[in-house]
Amino acid sequence: MSPESVGLPERGAYRRVPGLRREEVAQLAGVSTDDYTRLEQGRPISPSPGVLEAIAAALRLDDAERAHLSDLMRAHTGGGKPSGVPVVQRVRPGLHRFLESFTDQAGFILGRRGDILATNYLCRALLADFDAMPYRERNLTRWIILDPAARELYVDWEQIAAEMTAILRLDAGRHPDDARTAELVGELAMKSEHFRRWWADHKVLTRTFGRKRFRHPLVGPLTIDYQAFAMPGEDDQTLFLYLPADDQADQDAWRLLASWAADPATIRQPAPGQAARSATDSAHTDRGTS
């Protein structure tokens, strides 16, 4: 973002860093430079919602970034939810049955920090058998970033993993005192140079629909479309459903996957080429090579 792009005159040709200066952001937001500087540095200040909205507009923040700004300010002023006691999320039985009723879609329910709370059989066939993993390893972000099987499965692995990092940062801002989130971030930072770089970018993101490309070890190339649904009355639980793209090859591959997954004798077996879980094998540590 440059001064010209927001209608401000250029003040001098040389800038040590690109983007707007503090006084320029303050001018756009209609606040004093001193107040904006104190806010940026995390010093004691309690801006009104209107001031935060003005700053968000000045910085052209998207919805996820605006929510993250509000979360950070709420935590800074002591208005966040207390979370000294770890929150154990569970999916109620009726929602489990609802999830298993989807026979043509791969479905799973995510909780805080990307924890996998429940899956159906097509999800286990498409991604991994999360139900067979130790409880603390059932996390989508952790699996995508640390497990070599995920890196092989996702055609656009680096983009997907970077997006999951940004989504995790958004969740961490929403629950700043969550011990398990801190533990997950620490583990990923120790084991993945990629994660350390993405986390340092301070990007936040939310994804409610989109498209992903896979190279599945059983059915080959596969493109899917997905949609996310927040579960009313279920705190921080989101249902994700995957469907094949409209291309005939994707439809055929999906039917083949569903046929394989429908056999209870095969679904609990690792898919061909699926690596063992990373938590107990140091060989699974991301060395940061691109």
UniProtKB/TrEMBL annotation:
CDD domains, per database record: HTH_XRE
SUPFAM superfamilies with a match to the protein in the record: lambda repressor-like DNA-binding domains
Listed SMART domains: HTH_XRE
Chain positions covered by the region annotation Disordered: 267-290
Pfam families per UniProt: HTH_31 (PF13560), MLTR_LBD (PF17765)
Limits of the HTH cro/C1-type domain: 13-66
GO terms assigned for molecular function: DNA binding
Highest taxon listed in the record's lineage: Bacteria
InterPro entries (UniProt xref): Cro/C1-type_HTH, Lambda_DNA-bd_dom_sf, MLTR_LBD
Name assigned to this protein: Transcriptional regulator with XRE-family HTH domain
Native source organism of the sequence: Nonomuraea thailandensis
Classification lineage: Bacteria, Bacillati, Actinomycetota, Actinomycetes, Streptosporangiales
